[in-house]
Amino acid sequence: MPKKVKFRKQQRGNNKGIAVRGSKIVYGDYALKAADRGLLTSRQIEAARKAVMHETKRGGKLWIRVFPDKPVVAKPAETRMGSGKANTDHYAAVIKPGKVVFEIGGVTRELAKHAFKKASAKFPIKMRFVSKE
To answer: What residue ranges do the domains of the chain occupy?
Structure first.
């Protein structure tokens, strides 16, 4: 979650197009790339990070290339319509197809592929394993 935001609430906006920025491997040797569009919550990103760390036995280096900076609001259950916009429930990162979510270096290809397979199960969108070639 961000330390400070200019505005408490944001509109949903649209999520058209493909990722231009953050679509290439910059830091590591292997990456987990989004093949679909959607929102990744901070909890999902953290769960995937833990899965990768567990699989690699904290070997190598992991880079997280996304940050959840979009406030998502949610009204309580069984609330009547109206009475304004709800309070911020959680934060999410906007993901477009082609966006690199994680990068890893210092591990073998098989280990990276296995770790990213476990991590991709934590996300609600399809992911792809890519390598620097």
So the answer is: 36-76+85-131
